[in-house]
Design goal:
Two copies of one chain form a homodimer.
Chain A (H helix, E strand, L loop, with lengths): L1 E7 L3 H12 L3 E7 L3 H9 L5 E2 L3 H5 L4 E4 L6 H8 L8 E4 L5 H11 L6 E2 L1 E3 L20 E4 L7 H13 L3 E4 L2 H27 L4 H7 L2 H6 L7 H10 L1 H23 L3 H21 L7
Helix pairs in contact in A: 4-5, 7-11
């Protein structure tokens, strides 16, 4: 039982965590801190949080658990603000989409409290954002990745793991480097590719005609290009090295396909398409993800 | 009123055309020709077609309209088979995803009948395929592109246009070259990009882990990578030149993003993401495509 939970950044992710714990009577008071008055009012109204904090100090004072669900680019400033005010036994955890950078930031910001920083990444999301979109079942049957390091307090890790399980999530552990490499490939790269296609076509003189004739395939391929520009700029900044490697690999793959097209090597192109199609169909049969990462 | 309609390739596209015309009492008998006995039996059972033809000759004999909905790669052989058996006033139209190559094929296969070949491309499709998936509303509120050439018989063109309008479609006209350029950008390129990503990740030693952690964004981005390998090999072959140009442009766009990442030029990356996100959101607000091209 968490007596006091502080949610720093009361959006879809933080709000849904609070709602799921409340529903399972796993939390006492929930205190929220955020930038938007309107959003915090909606969070209060929907009882996502019980109280709005005026500043970082009052948000984390006497909190057993501090949940950081601010954009990755704001983690450093946020950790700096809360660090002096954490109670001695407080556990701090986060929901950032990249892990290595945040861990190093936490290490320097938290000092002796760093062992009770539990790095996490819930693989969940939805089309909507903000406290108004928060729901108590967002994490049900979803994966949450925890990326502890050598100094991580195992007892604190187990507490956070149990809370995620209370939310209905499946908790997995991996190294921060593995995490960042995996998500560079399956999430960050596709986002960059989708943004790139839309911006390329947007700049054409016949852009309106192009978008007029774009169909359902284009719609799905580019859906992630509607994502938040700031959030993705932050993620790229935090996971730059892994992503640079992925863009390089992908460019090589594209060059290979361009050469096959140049050489009219239809069997090679069909082989690529066949392997991709088989793998994609096997994956869909395997799993049925419901939403965004 | 079409007295006899021949559907060559009785799948989702051809079958839905027949069903829509039947529903609107715009066609007498529908004769079907296809490769799969099981699929033709399903088409008969669902009354998509009224009769199965044994060969191309009997399929098109005395047909007023011949609708070609075979894969692009089979258009040439199909046109060669039907050409000697077409009645003098028969109109031939197609539903191929590329137009310039098919027009040249039709020109040499049909000879003096070429003016009554009406090149068309319905921008519609669905997850499912085959006659079992055909439905009479597939083309409702969808676009159909017609790409006539100088020799095209305008009266035949108007007849085909009216039939598509009877199916509920909006008919537009453009040059074959414009058509192929537009679809290279908004359809063929995204398909290649999606196939490329899945095949690249599939080949990794940790592929299973990667697919395990792929979420909803990946699912939508790669949905078109589940498409038919043969069909897409054919489309690439038919639209090679335009697609080579698009892959080149896209590779340059990716290089630009890679350089920005290398140079830590976060404002430039955010600007690309912001423009893409705004354009993508404006497009969704504009239009609500229901399915695949």
């Amino acid at each position: 039982m968490i007596r006091r939970l502080a949610i720093i950044g009361v959006g879809l992710i933080g709000g849904s965590f609070a709602l799921a714990l409340k529903k399972n009577v796993a939390v006492g008071e929930v205190v929220g801190l955020g930038r938007s008055r309107g959003n915090l009012a909606a969070a209060l109204e929907r009882r996502v949080i019980d109280r709005v904090a005026d500043d970082a100090a009052s948000a984390v004072r006497e909190a057993d658990l501090v949940f950081l669900s601010v954009p990755v680019g704001q983690m450093s400033a946020t950790l700096g603000q809360i660090a002096p005010h954490l109670s001695a036994q407080a556990i701090v955890t986060d929901a950032g989409s990249t892990k290595q950078g945040i861990i190093e930031t936490a290490r320097s910001a938290l000092g002796s409290s760093f062992p009770r920083f539990i790095p996490g990444h819930p693989i969940a999301g939805a089309e909507l954002s903000g406290a108004a979109a928060a729901r108590d079942d967002l994490y049900r049957n979803r994966k949450v990745v925890m990326t502890p390091v050598q100094q991580t307090d195992r007892k604190a890790l187990e507490e956070v793991r149990m809370l995620w399980q209370t939310c209905g999530a499946e908790v997995l552990e991996m190294t921060p480097a593995d995490h960042d490499a995996i998500f560079a490939a399956v999430s960050h790269l596709p986002h960059v590719l989708a943004f790139a296609l839309v911006d390329m076509l947007r700049a054409r003189p016949n852009a309106d005609t192009l978008f007029d004739f774009a169909g359902g395939g284009f719609r799905d391929f580019t859906r992630i290009a509607a994502s938040s520009p700031e959030m993705w700029r932050d993620i790229l900044e935090a996971n730059r090295d892994a992503l640079m490697g992925e863009i390089k690999s992908y460019s090589e793959m594209l060059s290979l396909l361009a050469r096959a097209l140049e050489n009219k090597d239809w069997p090679q192109l069909e082989a690529v398409f066949r392997r991709a199609s088989e793998r994609r169909n096997a994956w869909t049969a395997d799993t049925r993800p419901r939403s965004d990462e």
